[in-house]
Amino acid sequence: MSFAQIVVLIALMVTLGILLTGVISMARGGEFNEKYGNKLMRMRIISQLTALILIAIFAFLSGD
Fold first, then answer.
1. pLDDT at 1
2. Structural contact between residues 37 and 48, judged by C-beta atoms closer than 8 angstroms
3. What's the half-sphere exposure (Cβ side, CA atoms, 13 Å) at 2?
4. In principle, which of 29, 31, 33, 46 could form an S-S bond with 37, CB 3.0–4.6 Å?
5. Helix, strand or coil for residue 63?
6. Distance between CA atoms of 60 and 45, rounded to whole angstroms?
7. pLDDT per position as a tens digit, 14-61
8. Strand ranges (DSSP E) for the chain?
């Protein structure tokens, strides 16, 4: 695997981890969800955007 692939894979795994944490906390409800639910979904959007930007940059640089 190249460096670019590893960086993108890490970014995607971070996004997945945040998404799963947010969805599980919403399903369970409670104090944790009330305190962190919206923050987790905002973090997911930011990490997803970061992953997409990284993919676009690496695709542009590779010439594909």
1. 82
2. no
3. 7
4. 33
5. coil
6. 22
7. 999 999 999 999 999 899 999 999 999 999 999 999 999 999 999 999
8. none
